[in-house]
Every structure is written in C-alpha cells, then in structure tokens.
C-alpha cells in the first residue's frame, strides 16, 4: 500500500505503537522502508513490537517526566534523524459528566492527549526538524466535533489537539508540516466498549457500511506523513467511513425541515 510514499530511510516515532491504530501505522511505515521507533507503557509489548518491525522502542508513559526527551534522544542516537512523528497514544478516561470530573483525572487527560504531543513536537523540532524539516501527524477523533454524554474530557482534550495541530502548522512552517487524522469508530481495545456490544447497529448506520479497521486509519496517516501530501499542513483528515456525512445530512435535513415548517407557519399554511 505504501511503495509510492517515498518513506524509505526516513526515521519515524510512533507513540502508542504496540497495538491498534499506532501498531498499524508502525507496520505501514516499516513496510514502506522507514526506520521505526514505537512507545507504550507495557515494556514486553514494546520489545515484541519493535523486534517484529525491525525497529526500536522505548517503554514509558508518554506523559511521564523526561519521556519525550528520552525517546527523542534514543531515536537520534539509533537512527541519526527524526523525520516523522505520529502522536497516537491517548487516554479516553475519565468517563462521566464534566460537572463531576475529578481535577487530577482532567489534568491527566490533557497531559496525555495534548501536552505530551506538544512536548514531543518541541523535542523533535529542536533535535532535528527545525534544521532538516519533517512531518507530524496527530491522531484526534471524529467525536471531538460532537457532545458525548460520558466522554467530555476526552472530547475536549482532542478538540484542543485539533487546534494545537493548526497552531503548530503555523509556527513550524515551511519546514515542518503538521496535520491530523480524525478517526471514527475503529476496532481497537480503546473502543471495544463501544463496538463490541453494538457493531452491527453502528455499521448499519454508516455510509460505508462497516466500522473502521486500524489499517484504514494507518493508510491516511502514512499519506499525510509522506511527501505525497507535501502541500498540506494544518489539515484534519476525517477517516470515519462517512460518520460525519451521515450526522451532517441528518442534522441538515432536520434543520431544513424546521425552517420549512417555520416558513409555512408564517405563510399561514398549517
Ligand atoms: N479506536 C477508535 O475508535 C478511535 C476513534 C477515534 C480516535 N482514536 C484515537 O486513536 C488513537 C489510538 O487509539 P487506539 O484505538 O488504537 O487505542 P489502543 O488500541 O488502546 O492502543 C493504544 C496504544 O497507545 C498506548 N498507550 C496508551 N496510553 C499510553 C500512555 N499514557 N503512554 C504511552 N503509551 C500509551 C498503548 O500501549 P500501553 O497500554 O501498553 O501503554 C497502545 O499501544 C488514540 O489517539 C485515540 O484517541 C481511536
């Protein structure tokens, strides 16, 4: 899928690369000839994944003190360069209404989902990208456009990541492109609580008729990371099987319906 992406010899860092979307991205990058470093908290999984990719890895919490510096140093020491950064690791905790949210849990969501991507961009910029250029892809979520009853902290932090993407695209241009992907529902551990009980129902409501697979998102990430997207920065690419189209057309139809009703009422038509 990736032979034309020109990623051969590039060095890539994928946070949360041991399973799900990050793993598919790391595999796609390795298949395209990139040198790949993955992270994750489970050291055994990091070792196993890195070995399978012929790459390297560093175990640790992406929001842990000194982690961004340590993994950047490792990549530079092992690969001598850092061309591509994929900020993929995230937490969807805490659940529940924001009126009840615990301050530490709120800070943790922002530390993992927003601050860690920023720290990694800062480290990559200083260590390599400022001088040599590069490409950053942040993994956001289609859901950040909606109001979810139980995932307010997640959605708010991902909306912040979307804006961070645009802000950094402005600051780091022209040498470094910064973009994001916003996946819909994808078959991974993080979203199991959504798709396992309701896959058929969700799939039936989607224009493309199925939930996403990690590789569906990985293809978009690789494309944005590569020179194929050389004139794209600050963009968010929806990879959602049409979730937004269906949501927009449903909402739009109701809005038109309401306007027509109002118009007909004003015109005296019951
Ligand atoms: N699945 C979906 O439906 C969906 C939809 C929209 C957006 N997304 C986004 O897609 C991205 C990937 O999610 P996924 O669904 O692929 O999740 P996943 O299958 O649960 O994988 C998450 C990966 O991130 C690592 N990770 C989690 N927390 C970490 C931390 N604090 N520090 C370092 N590594 C950490 C995990 O390894 P360890 O647990 O060992 O640390 C694992 O490698 C996330 O940004 C998520 O918000 C997912």
Explain what the structure shows:
The chain is of the alpha/beta class and 270 residues long. The chain has a seven-stranded parallel beta sheet, with helices on both faces. Strand 5, helix 5 (152-172) and strand 6 (176-183) form a beta-alpha-beta unit. 50% of the residues lie in helices and 13% in strands. Helix 1 (20-31) crosses helix 7 and helix 3 (67-79) runs parallel beside helix 4. The radius of gyration is 20 Å and the shape is globular. It has one domain: NAD(P)-binding Rossmann-like Domain (Rossmann fold). The protein has eight helices and seven strands. NADP nicotinamide-adenine-dinucleotide phosphate (NAP) is lined by residues 15-22, 39-42, 45, 61-63, 88-91, 112, 139, 141, 183, 185-186, 188-191.
Summarize the structure.
With 270 residues, the protein is α/β, with parallel strands linked by helices.
Summarize the topology.
Elements: E1 11-14, H1 20-31, E2 35-40, H2 43-53, E3 56-59, H3 67-79, E4 84-87, H4 103-132, E5 134-139, H5 152-172, E6 176-183, H6 192-204, H7 214-225, E7 236-239, H8 243-266
Parallel strand pairs: 1-2, 1-4, 2-3, 4-5, 5-6, 6-7
């Amino acid at each position: 899928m990736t032979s034309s992406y020109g990623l051969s010899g590039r060095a890539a860092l994928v946070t949360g690369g041991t399973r799900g979307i990050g793993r598919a991205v790391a595999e796609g990058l390795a298949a395209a000839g990139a040198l790949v470093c993955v992270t994750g908290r489970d050291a055994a999984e990091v070792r196993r994944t890195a070995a399978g990719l012929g790459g390297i890895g560093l175990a640790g919490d992406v929001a842990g003190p000194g982690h961004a510096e340590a993994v950047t140093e490792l990549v530079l020491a092992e690969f001598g360069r850092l061309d591509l950064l994929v900020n993929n690791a995230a937490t969807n905790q805490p659940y529940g209404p924001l009126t009840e949210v615990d301050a530490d849990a709120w800070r943790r969501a922002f530390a993992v989902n927003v601050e860690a991507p920023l720290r990694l961009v800062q480290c990559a910029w200083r260590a390599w990208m400022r001088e040599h250029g590069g490409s950053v892809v942040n993994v956001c979520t289609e859901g950040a456009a909606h109001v979810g009853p139980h995932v307010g902290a997640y959605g708010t932090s991902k909306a912040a990541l979307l804006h961070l993407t645009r802000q950094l695209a402005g600051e780091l241009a022209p040498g470094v492109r910064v973009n994001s992907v916003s996946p819909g529902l994808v078959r991974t551990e993080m979203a199991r609580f959504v798709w396992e009980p309701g896959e058929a129902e969700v799939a039936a409501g989607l224009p493309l008729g199925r939930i996403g697979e990690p590789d569906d998102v990985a293809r978009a990430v690789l494309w944005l990371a590569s020179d194929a997207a050389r004139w794209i920065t600050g963009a968010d690419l929806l990879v959602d099987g049409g979730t937004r189209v269906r949501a927009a057309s449903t909402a739009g139809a109701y809005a038109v319906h309401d306007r027509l009703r109002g118009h007909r009422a004003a015109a005296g038509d019951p």
